[in-house]
Design a protein that fits this description.
By secondary structure, the chain is an alpha+beta fold. About 15% of the residues lie in helices and about 40% in strands. It has four domains: about 1-40; about 50-85 and about 95-140, no CATH class; about 150-255; about 260-370, no CATH class.
């Protein structure tokens, strides 16, 4: 560093010639001498205090004109985040390091002790600032809507000619929560399930947006088959005079479910239902052959329900007569009966699973295989 002919405009002392700026560096008041420069220098610009409004229900923080979800374990973490975003380090400083030491003064106040070090004009500097953070509690828009039982659409889960099964209603509610979680993960704070209630006919799921209702209805149908439609109901007008509608998404599940045994309108024998997605698929329990309803029949062929795999019980396999017939004990009368032999029957088995219905006695597949939804 060598003497230059420049003089400090404030005190008149000569100013040492300085090296050029480093890439990306900006220097303020380059003509001042070091003494004058550091006389009014602040390494850190910090507010006198920070006020933070936090939702007492979900922990979201109010920033600007909106609520923001933060990944904070407690209010101390919230205070650290807010202080980090409000402190400004001088533009001339480089090699800056800092740390913060929070002090919980009381339930609503966290005093943040901040320590900074940096280098300015080749001079090591350090500075300490204390920023009180005042925490106030409120209720965010989302939690306010939840508390007020707000909803924009309803998903009604019903079934044709029957009541939805417990598995169908439980899974439909799970799907609604999964859809909400997916949308919340994208930053949608208006995504929530308001209420899920069972009625004599099925399940009603109230959700916060029409998009959630539509996605839930579609996913339920994709998983269990059936169809859904949507129906609008005018509920009010907004402050601009626009009509506000609630939408009902009516899910109609098929009349049969996997595990049902049905008697179809043909001579092929009863069918164990495997799937009702698209059109009904199953297996003949007289032969073991694959069954699939026609496109026109879809998931509701002309058939009557004989029972379910849950109605079946084990009985003794007495003898294998030939490739088409076996002898078993009737589980009610304990008489030996000759019945059809499906190809899935194990001839070396001692017991078999049988269903007794108005169509007679039939052997069902192994219980583990019955639960599969074959496509």
């Amino acid at each position: 560093m060598s003497e230059s002919r420049a003089f400090c405009p404030r005190c008149g002392d000569s100013v040492a010639e300085r090296e050029g700026l480093r890439p990306g560096e900006a220097r303020s008041d380059p003509d001042l001498c070091d003494a004058c420069y550091f006389e009014d220098f602040d390494l850190v610009d910090a507010p006198e205090r920070i006020e933070v409004q936090v939702c007492s229900q979900c922990g979201a923080v109010h920033r600007g004109n909106r609520w923001v979800d933060v990944d904070a374990r407690d209010y101390t973490d919230v205070a650290i985040d807010e202080v980090s975003g409000s402190l400004a380090v001088h533009v001339d400083a480089r090699d800056v390091t800092w740390q913060v030491d929070p002090e919980q003064v009381d339930r609503n106040t966290v005093r943040m002790h901040c320590y900074f070090t940096g280098v300015v004009r080749e001079t090591p500097l350090e500075e300490r600032v204390v920023v009180p953070v005042l925490i106030s509690r409120g209720t965010c828009d989302r939690c306010g809507r939840i508390a007020g039982d707000y909803y924009a659409s309803t998903v009604q889960v019903r079934a044709a000619d029957r009541e939805p099964t417990p598995r169908e209603t439980e899974r439909a509610e799970e799907i609604a929560h999964e859809v909400v979680a997916e949308m919340a993960a994208t930053g949608d704070r208006n995504a929530f399930v308001t209420e899920a209630s069972e009625t004599d006919d099925g399940l009603n799921i109230k959700v916060s947006t029409n998009k959630i209702g539509q996605k839930t209805a579609r996913k339920v149908v994709e998983e269990f088959g059936g169809t859904f439609g949507d129906y609008e109901t005018l509920v009010t007008e907004d402050e601009d005079g626009n009509e506000v509608y609630r939408v009902t998404y009516a899910v109609r599940l098929p009349p049969f479910t996997p595990g049902d045994v049905i008697d179809t309108d043909d001579d092929g024998g009863p069918v164990l239902v495997r799937s009702v997605r698209g059109n009904l698929k199953g297996q003949r329990i007289t032969t073991g052959e694959r069954y699939e309803a026609s496109f026109e029949e879809g998931d509701a062929p002309d058939a009557r329900k004989l029972g379910t795999v849950g109605d079946a019980g084990e009985t003794t396999l007495v003898a294998v007569e030939d490739e088409r017939a076996v002898q078993v004990l009737d589980p009610e009368t304990y008489r030996t009966e000759t019945i059809a032999r499906p190809d899935y029957l194990d001839p070396d088995a001692e017991t078999v699973l049988v269903l007794k219905s108005r169509a007679g006695l039939h052997v069902l597949p192994d219980p583990e295989a019955v639960g599969r939804n074959d496509e």
